[in-house]
Amino acid sequence: MHHAHRSIAIATVTLLTFIAASAPATARAQLEIGYAPNPYGFAATCDLARPLLSLNLDVRNTGDIPSKPRAIVVTDDTGAFHADDTLPPIAPNASTIYRVDIRYVPGGAGIAGTHRLSPVVGSHHVTPIEIVVPSSLCHATPAPVGLPSFGTNPSLSRGGANDVTRRIATVAVPVVGPLAYGNAARNTAGRLTLAIAPPTITRNVDSLATCAAHAGLVGSLVCPDLLKTGDLILIWDWQAAAGPTQIDGYRIYRVDGGSRTLAYTRTGKELTLADIVRPAGGYGGACYAISAFSATLESALGPTYCANGGSTTKSLHLGAIEQRSSWKKHVGGGFSKTPEAGTVVGFEYSSEKLLFGDNSFAIVHRAAFAFDVSPVLKHRIVSATFHATIRSSTGAGNNHSCATHVGTGTEFWWQNTGWIDATFGAGIVPTDTGPIISADVTTLVAPWSRGEPNYGFVLRNEDENLAAFTNKACVTEYTSPALDIVYY
Q1: 298 and 398 both lie in a single domain
Q2: Range of 401's domain?
Q3: d(CA 309, CA 163)
Q4: Residue 382 contacts residue 312 (beta carbons within 8 Å)
Q5: What is the torsional sign of CA 140, 142, 148, 151?
Q6: I want to staple 211 with a disulfide (CB 3.0 to 4.6 A). Which of 223, 306, 323, 382 is the partner?
């Protein structure tokens, strides 16, 4: 048999064989299994009554007791080849190259071509490999011959056909870490290709945070607008495992109804997010699965995700159901709190030095707006944005907004006519240039969607100093308050 002459990167499979009752409680066998530097071979001649292929497994027992025998099964994705074998006990601290002979299954697929072989040792799966069997291995009418020759390998001892040492060589070695080899070399008889690992955990984006985590460096910039589209945004995870670490990208397939239709191709390895175009009938019932690819090679499909009513975002535009302002003023030595018409925010200070006593005037304004958010109760909030239009403004230009902070009320202020108290700990700063201003109030609306009390929004200017003795002002009146919510 001819062997490939390059080493490959292997997956380490750890098998634990627990001790017998007489052994110390900490003693165990631990197997690490991968492929040998010459991972596979072909028979020198074609005899369908004999093995045509072999896989060479590199096995190490890093434990402190011998391992138990393990069943070995090798399957082929085409059904053309199969192997049943038994891995014999491996001594502690020993390394073994074990050859698994693989036979052709009569009535199976053709011998020549690409075959994906999947070894299973005990209950553990070794990373599958792809072997290209040359058409020259077997002709239409193969001549019966004796046992095939599997080439030379200095680490393999020779014995009789039923002698297990025919396929195993054991060397006591100190094991310091997992087995690792480079890529296997190409020869004229065939080639070895490690299977590309498929993506895992395919699902839809359900928040700005999950979107940003899969959208790379630009995630924080593109995700807010991306989620507002209402499109299905799929995300997935991918790890190379024991396969190639470099891939060209991912393919997203629509797979419902037994179909496999390419819906999107994402180039590059790092960006694990895709905006899926809305099908003609909507996303309901549409199912998607994702593969990874490199050049002409492609992985198996990852988990299937089927869209439903909660898979995409929805948008809600609300007008205010309550709004009013209140002012607090200090004139000379007195204070007063009075409601006022309109929705005004800001301050007005004036002062005058007199020969006998000084004169001062100070007034501050707050505006408040309430919205009915019951349609999003028990829903996940992606974003919430408050908007208002500047009707008039004085003190800093007629297009300048004097509101510098957005907070929440502390009571149902629309049920009284007093000063509007509020908390402003969220640090929300609205835009300051009109004609329309806005503020990201997601952190304020999200608790309301969970059923916490909704006391609306309160706008103020940071300069609220009724003891001011100066001359300045900034007062803005607002109209057309609105709240836009994007939610799942």
Answers
A1: no
A2: 318-487
A3: 63
A4: no
A5: negative
A6: 223
Nearest residue to 277 via CA among 236, 312, 309? 312
Going by C-beta distance under 8 Å and a sequence separation of 6 or more, which residues neighbour residue 177? none
| 276 and 415 both lie in a single domain | no
Cα–Cα dist 438/423, whole Å: 19
Same domain, 178 and 226: no
Q: What is the rounded distance in angstroms from the CA atom of residue 409 to the CA atom of residue 421? A: 6
CA distance 155 to 178: 20
Total residues belonging to the chain:
488
Among candidate residues 157, 178, 194, the one where a domain is terminated: 194
Residue 236: CATH number of its domain: 2.60.40.10
Same domain, 211 and 265: yes
Closest by alpha carbon to 424, among 451, 388, 460?
A: 460
Fill in the amino acid letter for 226.
L
Confidence at residue 171, expressed as pLDDT on a 0 to 100 scale: 34
Verify that 355 and 308 share a domain, yes or no.
no
User: CA-to-CA distance for 11 and 240, rounded, in angstroms?
Assistant: 10
How many Å separate Cα 458 from the centre of its chain?
A: 38
Tens digits of per-residue pLDDT, 20-66? 334 445 678 888 888 887 788 888 778 888 899 999 898 888 888 98
Q: What total of structural domains would you count in the chain? A: 3
Q: Would you say 58 and 35 are in contact if contact means Cβ atoms under 8 Å apart?
A: yes
Question: Which residue is it, tokens 């397939």?
Answer: 253
In this structure, the answer to whether residues 65 and 123 fall within a common structural domain is yes
Whether 383 and 452 map to the same domain: the answer is yes
Same domain, yes or no: 124 and 83: yes
Task: Judge if pTM exceeds 0.90.
Answer: no
Q: Which of 185, 262, 196, 464 is nearest to 348 (CA)?
A: 464
> Where would I find the beta strands (DSSP E) of 195-321?
200-204, 232-237, 249-254, 261-267, 273-276, 287-294, 297-298, 305-306, 314-319
Contacts of residue 222, Cβ cutoff 8 Å, sequence gap at least 6 = 215
Handedness of CA 200, 205, 206, 207 (dihedral sign): positive
Residue that finishes a domain, picked among 281, 296, 312:
312
Here the tokens at position 98 are 């074990």
